[in-house]
Design a protein that fits this description.
It contains six helices and no strands. With 139 residues, the protein is an all-alpha fold. It has one domain. The two termini are 27 Å apart.
Amino acid sequence: MSRAMVAGIVGILTAGVAQFLALLIAGVGHGWGEPFFLSAALWITLPVTAIRLRRPSANSAGAVEWLMVLLALSLDLLLIVATVWGFGRAVPIFGTGVEHFMNIARAAFPLVLLWSLLWFSWQIAALFLLLRRPSKAAR
């Protein structure tokens, strides 16, 4: 089995852990629900980032890295907007409000912290991939 395949499998397993943590954070609708829905993106972003880390292309600032960084910024903005303001009647499942976030952060801080670390891990890795310089052998 290649290293890239192992990295992809680890990315998928990590996405499963993050999705499960987001389910716990959602608290059967009484917690912070936005991470549960937005964690669906992790099923793609974590494996792709893990594979890109194991098999970097010669062009370190390729289209995939730019797309991943733009996706990271978009998803972070969506998470903030969905939590703070929601989307009104258009999407009633969003908009639990800051008070739900604060309540779950106090009640289950380790879960929120672990989910946040998994959420930001692929974003930091994507930014690293975008900013790093290719090695002399890859040039």
